[in-house]
Amino acid sequence: MQASWDDFRFVKVVADRQGLTGAAEALGIDHSTAFRRLGAIEKALGVPLFERHRGGYTATAAGQAMLAVATRMEADVDGFSREVVGRSDVMVGELRITAPTSFAGTFLMPILADFSRRHPAVRLELILAEETLNLSRRDADVALRASRGPDETLVGRRLTGVGWALYGAAGQTFGRLGDERWVGLGESVAGGLFARFLARRVSPDRIALSLNGVAGLREAVAAGIGIGPLPCIEGDADARLRRLGDVEPELHTDLWLLTHQDLRRSARVRAFMDHVAAAMLPLRPLFEGRGGIT
């Protein structure tokens, strides 16, 4: 039996999700359908493709061989897709943008609205995510990404520095900050950068809440759960918050606008990147936190 392209893709999803439950969710099918499909593929090939364990599915030798082919096929398809989009010189079609979740409520929507008015034939898809999406796989075409150094396979431009400072709820008074209750981002965020920042300033028993995203962190500070570090673009603009100190140099990062090198000549990618870069110029002081303590 000759496996179809869809069979290779299905097996790769099962391997990537380490089982049928995650694969079914990713493919939008129910578990029983996924179970029957994998069984049919293995029966037709005459070999098992996975070993079943309580912790998930592990590819057999035959499964690994099939996965190697599927990975090459996926890379070829992604490369072809990027090449086609990269050669496009018309302002028509879909443009997928990814950005951190918190950006939607601060500055991004007015920029997207203005771009959409100027280029109504370009359909925008915004993917808000804290995790880093893969531009090589075209999970997105353009990424707004806070980073101290972007992946060398990507191209783009540094838009601005991003300053961070400590904030508390506006209606509260604060004494020695080390004696206050704190909130912060956990070990899983930015390689533990923010967790280490807190550890150097406050004992563990003073940390009231740890989160995995900036949007939730801002709400926690505003609710009075504790003081904590926030990007100045968000903290200074929120009337519920009060800045408690100068910009913290060790938390400084940069905001980058990135795309895959195969897409940089696409008319809609170029137009969007130019538009965002121009719109960001007057916002730089806000991002860098030059407003000072309130």
TrEMBL record:
Keyword Secreted applies: no
Example GO molecular function: DNA binding
Keywords of the record: DNA-binding, Transcription, Transcription regulation
HTH lysR-type domain residues: 1-60
Pfam name, any one: LysR_substrate
Gene3D superfamilies in alphabetical order: 3.40.190.290, Winged helix-like DNA-binding domain superfamily/Winged helix DNA-binding domain (1.10.10.10)
Keyword Cell inner membrane included in the entry's annotation: no
Family label: Belongs to the LysR transcriptional regulatory family.
Protein name per its UniProtKB record: DNA-binding transcriptional LysR family regulator
